[in-house]
């Protein structure tokens, strides 16, 4: 106890002296990670970003070293990506004296209200993946991903007469995989959530999120609640693709994790509120290189929000959303530590009637069977898995429908991840379903999207 | 031979340092004058080009509003234009540092939350000891340049108060960032903050000053600029940096051309000096070459020796000239910078640029000048036989014989140039420079014969002044060069004096006519009145109600594109008789104003009418904030602003270009009120940096100060030319003293005192000064005519009334004679020390 208090005092002195301190610096003076966690839990320090701490009530000018912090961060993760987070967080740190709301087990869900943005939480995203087929002959098959991220800068837009005043940053990611031609395209945008550029609607305004398109694209990106499902549209003139999709849930909403709380780490606050529509009918249009197809298919939707999802040691994750032909769906995730070990995992099985079962850690097994190295980033991704869930009599082989489905950001250096369509087959190569897999944190200096 | 070369070079330097020193000085001065102007020219353009660079790196296209600003609602439209890869909004303001009313900072509001890898690179690439602080949206957070922080004594964490019009804002220095690496306008005085904060703090909600656009990789920015303009219905200007820099080049073109022409004249005079000095060196070494030849050296080896030595002197001159040129540029930086700011409304020069091209020009001019100046005398030595080289009395007869022929060529050249100009040349804009060049080049052609003819007429009663004058004709080859050099310098001096004197007098009359009110109140943004500086209606109301004020003349000014260039579009109340008198109409008087009011027309300044080919009865198209507006031209008026202006009635401006606030007001005071006291009272009532209040007298002084500043840089060139010419006189007399050593010895033998020889040489110097003055004055008058009636008219469109600035001219003449006499003192002293036994050496 005495030692702990002493460590706390040392940590306090260090934080008072430097304002913002990296975890390595704390470790360097003999302060254990557990002490820091306790101080954080007790509200003595605020965790600004991964490995960066600030004393809770520190005045702004107390030796804040933004560039130095960002520089230190860039050694471990992506410099620029880290910087934007640091900027965002420090902006918040400069204006707000309270912490963001962490994901809590006692959260009371309210739908459809919870489809809209949840202010107070630092990060939030709406995530759609799916497979589409064109009508008529020849059939064109597509995989798609559409994501809107909200990154909180401050709880509310600052009191300002400027139309540039912003409380959030909007990040949009979209990808289209032409499964027949074997081509994958990715588009992105990052703008401040200001009236001129984009924003998040308030219930019952059907607009959930919207943003100007990427530079060079006149059309905006939009996500609407259509009363039953979601409508979303995106375009990227420069990349030559776009899609407009309307979805309609075919099965009930699924809370991921008990009470919709998805644990991401050992710390109580390392969690998010998470729900999904695991199977939705999707119709719309796909535009690619000037051609346009009327399409239909199925989609998967995730909505997640929280303030401190990732634990300090989490460097990336493998995430699976599988839609089986027998009407069941499986969601799996594995969080990896810096050393490559799986330190957190979770799985949800939804039966054909929509009943949900949260699988226990020993109840399922996922093994990577192949590897694909990105020629662009050099990141070595797993490419092929076997999945076993004996309690559900499920043995499946998962393989990418196309190897090259890596999303590489041009706006934020070192932000790249694999997000792609996969096929699910039996061990005897019988088709069993399809799905999407997201692999982050692979490769040197790779940074997950969040 | 190489060893001999090395040994003799140092020996020559030791034995005659003045001669060699003057040669090097000649090259150095010529080089300095050329490169100092080039450095200033390039720095001016580079400074503007740096301003064109936008946030996030160098933009491919810069989008600006027609009236200086653009609504920020245009931003998504610009960003969404096909072909755009990135778009960065910029809000800009200027504020005075509280407590230092003369110190202004540029505030750049940018989107700090936009992904701009370049910006991150700057921040994350900072050295650890920089401790830049935190980027926060907290009110007033700014990042400053290290230079600005050092100059102001700021450090990270400091609170800084700046004054924006009537409000004091508190800023927090959060970081020190080298924005020049990043390209934030390239300014050392920049403070960067988040755009929302900048707009909010500095009252610019909804307003942007520019949008920097990056084109998609490999795309041509020019079509993208057109697409952006098209998408926004022509309500913005989208230009590539090359186009914008080109506009600045064009804007500064005449200014730069004038300076470049002057510097080239200095180089020409410098080349003459080199010619004279190398000739002097060769005369001095003549017998040495004769000895070398008699010992078996070939003419080619002697030629190589001469050229080698010239090259060495040239290199030395270049080295000194580069340093001198740089410091001359530094010395003139403030004057040129002020001219750019005040006259051309461009940003000031913050740093000087010395490019590889400038250094190459210095080497080319200096070395080329030295070698070309040496070539003729060297070839003369090369083709002479050994006996002639050893002869003490070099032949002068050939030079005398050629004098008449050269004179005829000179006359023919001048006549030819005039005829060419009269027939066709006047249509060609640079024809004035052709005329000036011909005029200057003719002087060395005319000088020998004129010197010979004029000196031959002098009667010589004794061994005194007139003997000295007459003997100039006997050493024509030498003296004519000095007279030529001097006459060219005088020509330049007189021409510029006539231009500046006439222009200044014209300006004084124009200002007297234009400035009729007692006190002028102008809204300012930063150090100068700018397009976005306006006066609030309440302020104008308060000024009008002041007890001393009898009446108020309102003025609203916008800077809008007219005829392809941005000019001042001024609106006044044309119904007021005072405004009608103020305009200085070129013809028609009050009826022109009445017609303008009747036909809803505009009055066009003379420079603009010329550059945009606008005539009474025609129409002028103004690209206004609400779209293009075509208005009839009702009259023309005298105008001495750069680029010209358009004047219209206030009501017409509101109707056609949109409503807006006034930019300045002129106050007419009640009888007995003291304008100075009223100006001081108004200024003290309002905070610094918000208003510029000047009395009539003060404003006139300011106008003339700006004028004098504009021409200040020409003074240095004039002085340089004069110094070069004085050096030429010294060199010539040294040559004469050397060549005529035996003759002087003979005089001494016959009983001439040293004092008499001394005076003889001084009189030679004075005579050369008078001859140079006479020739230069005649040519300078011609140059003045060309500058005033041809060059200024064609490049600026200014009508300048001819004036003889006698006082200035007399002062300059006196200075020239004094310089010439001073320049002849050393050679006179040397000559007076010629021993009598020199006669024996010559006869040996």
* Distance from first to last alpha carbon of chain A: 36 Å
Uncertain stretches of 5 or more adjacent residues of chain A: 1-5, 58-98
What amount of the residues of chain A lies in strands?
Answer: 35-45%
- The helical percent of chain A reads 10-25%
* Whole-number mean pLDDT of chain A: 83
Count of strand segments of chain A: 28
The secondary structure category of chain A is: mainly beta
- Indicate the radius of gyration of chain B in whole angstroms: 32 Å
Strand content of chain B: 15-25%
- Which architecture name of the largest domain in chain A does CATH use? Beta Barrel
Number of helices of chain B: 27
Q: What is the count of distinct domains of chain A?
A: 2
Give the N-terminus to C-terminus distance of chain B in angstroms: 28 Å
CATH superfamily of the largest domain in chain A: AttH-like domain
Can you tell me the overall shape of chain A?
globular
Number of domains of chain B: 4
Major β-sheet annotation of chain A: 13 strands, antiparallel
